[in-house]
Task: inverse folding
């Protein structure tokens, strides 16, 4: 017998998403928090929110090019080297494929006001001032087409790792004459490169001025760092594998965002590591296994540095020239305080791009999305969301991450939604904010379980409440 019930495709799609979210109700031992745009998605806050129940927090790529800001009451924590979980005084681990700058690490530990429970893998590569000097010289040599790196020496340090000339944390800690010899050798080699290729010296930026660095000072400083880091050295691979076997709550903390991945991002306008879920396994040294992945996306997009952003409201200009930007870009930038935590440069701003998001969700196997900074959009008349592309030379729903030229010539096809004055009404999403969240869910087909609507730790709306268990 037929019942005259009309079930729309949208209803089926939403029921499907809700059902999948419900099926996730089980103990999840390992969670990965990863940026699925170009970085700065607000990962620190989400890590902070869920690390309450974590036994350990593990950083697995990047270095102090990352910047995480966590606001707890009147105190603001800024971390670059340390995993964000440090604010909860958790066991914090730095895995082998992180590049570590001991100058920054020491500063951060000093600012904490307490001794962190920190473990550093002995295989971690160390950033030296000559890496910063090379980063600076190369950016200058790129002339009018710089990448816009953070100048933290990240690329040159990964280069040394690939060249098999890098100095790792275990060597630093071991110290002795062989360490001094290795630092001197590397220093002299880089000095020659800087002189002959770039007509400069080992110079780094201090207080906005270029300052020459002396070999003797670097050797002395880093020998001291070695002594200070000794107590933190730990085989992270063993620690994490053993924790996973015991079903401990392990939280993996990504840095940057997938579109900056050196293989799968917008090469060459990328960083030098893999901000991707798959990087966990090679960095930690653990077998591939299911890890619950939370993809962090802003309600709009931002990018610091050059490279294609199809929905850019700054006419692709890098550095940003606010006098030629669209009005909405300046509005969003100001409300969202979109300047880099690491370098304070203005970030480019654009509308949400669901073509790019679908791509990063796919290659990371994102199980749920945390949508951040939706409140920044409050007060706009209309909100646009790119749902397809035109003129890319590829299919309209396809993201050719590698083809930066094609992406630069691509036009977005927008769906326009009415704006909202307030994100929340009576503790729930206001109807127009709800419409924005629904649109993203419907197109991406992944539940948005968390909506962050302000910088405070408490300003997160949990959706599918019954399903959000994590480790509880
Ligand atoms: P690098 O990682 O310093 O070599 O910079 C390469 C590119 O990645 C530049 O466009 C940087 O602005 C960008 N980048 C690096 N780290 C971050 C981050 O944590 N957030 C956003 N962009 C980043």
Result:
């Amino acid at each position: 017998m037929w019942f005259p019930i009309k079930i729309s495709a949208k209803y089926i799609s939403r029921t499907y998403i809700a059902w999948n979210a419900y099926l996730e109700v089980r103990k999840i031992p390992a969670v990965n928090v990863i940026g699925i745009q170009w970085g700065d998605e607000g990962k620190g806050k989400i890590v902070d929110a869920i690390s309450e129940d974590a036994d350990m927090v593990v950083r697995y790529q990047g270095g102090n090019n990352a910047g995480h800001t966590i606001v707890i009451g009147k105190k603001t924590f800024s971390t670059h080297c340390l995993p964000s979980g440090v604010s909860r005084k958790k066991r914090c681990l730095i895995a082998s494929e992180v590049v570590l700058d001991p100058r920054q690490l020491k500063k951060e530990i000093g600012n904490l006001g307490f001794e962190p429970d920190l473990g550093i893998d002995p295989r971690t590569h160390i950033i030296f001032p000559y890496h910063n000097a090379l980063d600076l010289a190369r950016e200058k040599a790129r002339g009018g087409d710089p990448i816009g790196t953070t100048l933290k020496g990240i690329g040159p340090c990964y280069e040394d790792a690939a060249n098999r000339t890098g100095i790792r944390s275990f060597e630093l800690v071991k110290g002795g004459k062989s360490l001094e010899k290795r630092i001197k050798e590397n220093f002299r080699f880089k000095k020659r490169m800087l002189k002959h290729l770039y007509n400069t010296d080992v110079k780094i930026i201090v207080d906005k001025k270029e300052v020459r660095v002396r070999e003797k000072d670097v050797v002395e400083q880093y020998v001291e760092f070695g002594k200070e880091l000794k107590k933190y050295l730990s085989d992270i691979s063993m620690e994490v594998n053993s924790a996973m076997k015991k079903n401990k709550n392990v939280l993996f903390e990504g840095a940057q965002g997938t579109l900056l991945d050196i293989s799968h991002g917008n090469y060459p306008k990328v960083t030098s590591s893999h901000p991707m879920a798959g990087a966990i396994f090679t960095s930690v040294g653990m077998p591939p296994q299911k890890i619950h992945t939370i993809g962090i996306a802003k309600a709009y997009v931002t990018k610091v540095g050059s490279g294609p952003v199809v929905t850019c409201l700054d006419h692709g200009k890098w550095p940003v020239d606010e006098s030629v930007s669209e009005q909405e870009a300046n509005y969003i930038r100001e409300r969202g305080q979109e300047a880099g935590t690491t370098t304070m440069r203005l970030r480019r701003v654009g509308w949400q791009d669901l073509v790019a998001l679908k791509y990063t969700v796919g290659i990371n196997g994102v199980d749920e999305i945390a949508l951040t900074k939706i409140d920044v959009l409050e007060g706009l008349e209309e909100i646009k969301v790119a749902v397809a592309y035109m003129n890319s030379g590829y299919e309209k729903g396809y993201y050719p991450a590698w083809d930066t030229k094609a992406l630069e010539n691509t036009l977005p096809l927008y769906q326009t939604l009415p704006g909202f004055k307030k994100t929340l009404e009576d503790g729930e999403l206001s109807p127009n904010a709800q419409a924005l969240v629904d649109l993203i869910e419907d197109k991406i087909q992944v539940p948005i379980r968390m909506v962050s609507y302000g910088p405070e730790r408490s300003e997160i709306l949990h959706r599918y409440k019954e399903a959000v268990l994590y480790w509880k």
Q: What stands out?
A: Residues 38-40, 65-67, 147-150, 152, 154-155, 255-256, 260, 271-272, 304-305 surround inosinic acid (CB under 6 Å). The chain has a mean pLDDT of 93. The two ends are 45 Å apart (CA to CA). The first helix runs from residue 9 to 23.
